[in-house]
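Example S7 (structure tokens).
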């Protein structure tokens, strides 16, 4: 009986992952979603596409979509929105030798710029490093810079950008 329950749990977890992957694919053909910045290339012989996606009907729905050899992954916690973070924008996506990085910025008086580095391992991306720069626009000569290496690798799907921001 325990084996049957275990098999059912594993089956439903796999089905939910497939459903999420199908939802990611649907975004590409949905006119409500604008495609923003993107990068594509090859890492370790695998075709990679990283795409910024914005829902024109819901400002809170903006995220990164990744396609690895036609396997789709979405993370609705990978980007911020302009309603909660004044002056927010995604600066760029960049393909790296071992993964990709992306840069964001936000702020009015207190300005923040972050660059998130993801490393490609075992058919997935993992957060590796974060670089942060900030300054007070009233006194822009004084800047702060910080690099944070991530020792416990966080997969792209589990990454939540708000967990890594300075208050």
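Recovered sequence:
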């Amino acid at each position: 009986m325990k084996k049957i329950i275990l098999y059912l749990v594993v089956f439903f977890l796999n089905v939910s992952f497939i459903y999420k992957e199908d939802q990611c694919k649907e975004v590409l053909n949905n006119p409500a979603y604008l495609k923003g910045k993107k990068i594509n290339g090859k890492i370790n012989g695998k075709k990679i596409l990283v795409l910024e996606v914005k829902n024109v009907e819901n400002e809170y729905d903006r995220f990164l979509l990744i396609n690895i050899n036609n396997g789709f992954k979405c993370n609705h916690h990978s980007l911020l929105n302009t309603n909660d973070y004044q002056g927010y924008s995604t600066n760029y996506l960049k393909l790296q030798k071992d993964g990709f990085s992306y840069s964001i910025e936000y702020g009015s008086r207190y300005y923040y710029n972050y660059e998130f580095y993801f490393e490609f391992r075992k058919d997935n991306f993992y957060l590796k490093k974060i670089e942060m720069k900030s300054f007070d626009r009233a006194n822009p000569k004084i800047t702060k810079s910080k690099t944070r290496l991530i020792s416990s690798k966080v997969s792209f799907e589990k990454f939540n950008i708000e967990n890594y921001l300075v208050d």
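Notes on this example. Residues 2-29 form the longest helix (28 residues).
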